[in-house]
Amino acid sequence: MKVKDYTTYxxxxxxxxAQIEEAVSLLKDHFLEFIPIVDGRRHVQNVISKNNLCDFIxxxxxxxxxxxxxxxxxxVMVKENDEIEKxxxxxxxxIVVVDKEQCxxxxxxxxxxxxxxxxxxxYLDNEFHAILDSTYNGIIAINQNEKVIxxxxxxxxxxxxxxxxxxxxxxxxxxxxxxLPEVLKTGDGELGKxxxxxxxxxxINRTPIIKDHEIVGxxxxxxxxxxxxxVTQELENEKNASEILRTIIDNAYEGIIVxxxxxxxxxxxxxYAKFLARDKKNIIGKHATEIIDTTRxxxxxxxxxxEIGEVQKVKGKNIVVMRxxxxxxxxxxxxxxxxxxxxxxxxxxxxxxxxxxxxxxxYYKAALKEVSGAKYSFxxxxxxxxxxxxxxxxxxxxxxxxxxxxxxxxxxxxxxxFAHAIHAASNRAMxxxxxVNCAAIPSDLLESELFGYEEGAFTGAKRGGKIGKFxxxxxxxxxxxxxxxxxxxxxxxxxxxxQEKEVERVGGSKSISLDVRIITATNRNLEEMVEKGxxxxxxxxxxxxxxxHIPSLRERMDDLEPLIQHLLIKISExxxxxxxxxxxxxxxxxxxxxxxxxxxxxxxxxxRAINLVDYGKEIQVxxxxxxxxxxxxxxxxxxxxxxxxxxxxxxxxAILDCLKRVNENRTKAxxxxxxSRSSLYxxxxxxxxx
Length: 690
Ligand SMILES: Nc1ncnc2c1ncn2[C@@H]1O[C@H](COP(=O)(O)OP(=O)(O)OP(=O)(O)O)[C@@H](O)[C@H]1O
Prior knowledge:
This protein is of the alpha/beta class. The protein has 5 domains: 3-116, CBS-domain, CATH 3.10.580.10; 135-224, PAS domain (Beta-Lactamase, 2-Layer Sandwich), CATH 3.30.450; 230-341, Beta-Lactamase (2-Layer Sandwich); 373-549, P-loop containing nucleotide triphosphate hydrolases (Rossmann fold, 3-Layer(aba) Sandwich); 555-686, Orthogonal Bundle (Helicase, Ruva Protein, domain 3). It is built from 26 helices and 28 strands. Helix 13 crosses helix 14 (415-425), helix 20 (560-575) crosses helix 22 and helix 25 (666-673) packs across helix 26 (677-686). It is elongated, with a radius of gyration of 56 Å. The structure holds adenosine-5'-triphosphate. Residues 381-383, 409, 411-417, 481, 521, 523, 563, 566, 599-600, 603 line the site of adenosine-5'-triphosphate. The site of adenosine-5'-triphosphate has 19 residues, from helix 14, helix 20 and helix 22.
């Protein structure tokens, strides 16, 4: 604050030759304490005060005359721009305000100064208390009489006593162990002392208050260190964690390097530094490109894309690396580079190890499946056509029941696959899945195969007897494949077992109760057989509780491509010749064929092709069998021939090719072509095939 801020600017002054009367009336009219007397340049020469004037008049008994005759007075001149603090020490004198040129400008009125000074004092006092109350630290101060004079908000909070109750009280009433009286007495401060107050750990500084070289009080500044301790503990934990992390990184087998968002190296672990044959200290802070010329870490921080399994030449070696961007709040802030293999050769070793493990796993999985019975689940049934999806849906429904299921469909459509899947998805999955091919077992052995026999049941019977398939399937499912081929006498025995839910071994007398789900399958027309009396009607109804009809492949050609892809992988693994690609031309031929042997025939065609194609190469049309290759060609080049002749040619070609594939085994050929042996013989004769 400047003097000018307190100045009462005035034009009231006198010159040396002014009359006393003038001075009296000015002082009186304007309630002034004094009036300056200036010269011609308005320089203050003197002042004349009320007291002066009174004294003079009393002494001289004069009321008129020149003011020059008056006794010269003491006065002080201050400049407008002087600090106001300056006048506090001379406030008892007459003060005249002048400008730079020493010209009179006005007075400083004492009443105004005192009022302002008082207001200012109050303002400062408030400020001081506001500051004290805003500090996080608790503050208590006492005066020389050990009375509390300062007690801020934080002190209230920490010590749990309101300031009204503390201010003015003896410190002993407020805080017994404050030790402020001791500090007051000795004048020695106590810094960084720990003390528990009100159950809270505090850290306290106690110092004497010194004014004019005299101890006038003592102050304690304290802080609750519960939070501080927590923060310290957290910092300590973080420090430990980062030390642990650093140790892990340094002891990691792999080389690890980290760059910031500009590609400058901020961390590198010991193995990487060792690999680069450089000192860590000379690496940190350098740009990645300066240390590893083939690096791409500075690029990864720009693209934000991870690069895994890349081969990079470092120090003349082809290493395999991965580079991962580090994201923070959606922004790339750096990247980590990691050596996955210090030598590409290591990858080959590892790959062959994985291969070996995979094979072992496959073997054990197969063995496990063998024990539990079912080899396939619904996941193994490939196909996206609506027809197959509907069939799968129905089959999945029957898994929830114990009803007998009859699966029907042409040969090779996947009936057995469905039987496995139904068992595997049912609550009998933990029980056995026993398959019996009714057509493959000679009719005289079928009974003992199905029901078992006791020792000595017949000549040639094994010692100790033999457990039957039904007994084996107890608690699980039995799959009677080719049920249409079951001999008539066996049909009656099977019916009895189904009705009574118990079985008796051949030559035995004990009944064994059964809890078996029966799944049957056939590609034969059972209804026609029932009509002809070849299949028992009562058995037919018992087996045919739930029927699942599997559509032929030609009815769902949408499944062809996914099946091809699936089978190529499956067969490649089985035969050990890897060929999973097939040309679009070849697929075209496969699509135009009508697959009488269904998926099994497709499997055979693909297996043949995989055997012919070179490892890893694509299957071409030339790898397909003749009858498929001819399909389209012959259709295209038929000219004006009758349909009957065209079909006969195609049929002949198909039979020839099939015979060739099965080494002339006519039974197998008839099965694949899904015609009876007699019908095959007829056609051979018709086309003159030897
Ligand atoms: N949808 C499919 N997905 C994958 N493989 C299939 C599918 N359908 C059939 N197969 C495969 O085709 C071959 C023949 O299937 P499966 O033996 O189940 O047919 P099937 O109808 O029981 O034949 P058959 O009447 O001659 O006994 C098997 O190798 C099977 O794995």
